Request: fold
Amino acid sequence: MAKNVNGFLCDGRCEQGLKHGISSTYLLLDPEKDPVLIGYATLAFDSVRLTNAEKKKMEELIGIAQFGAIRIQMIGVDHRHQRTRCGSILLEAITGLARKLSQDVAVRFLLADANVKRIGFYEAAGFVRNKAQREAERTDSERSVSMRLDLIDPADVRAPEAVAAAAA
Reply:
């Protein structure tokens, strides 16, 4: 797994997404050391898979059952900076960026395929496991687990008729 994460930048696998405008890579740098690359995260747009019960609840609540999402395509921290909160800082920055984007672009969730050894890391940041059957039956479920973070506080969500009344 570490080779895949490290190689994503070094082998240039991130370049195709950048070249075709389908992903963006953000770098976490230590400006006091030349700068030194501490970590990175690559984001792309996606859509979230919800269970039928979740879709029904969302449709009843706001009239929509399908939602756009931002996917953490790859995230990594240099091994020399692991266990120093750099990963948490990077994830907090990415989560903040995703929340900001969700105010201007129709995305509701931040998605991540969490390494099974790092599920607690994502859960501590508010992510939950995706429950959709397609996600539960993935072939790589022993290495990673599909997780999501709702970018909108459910308390801030108003029914469509309330939004229409407020706009009038």
Summary: The CA atoms of residues 11 and 113 lie 21 Å apart.
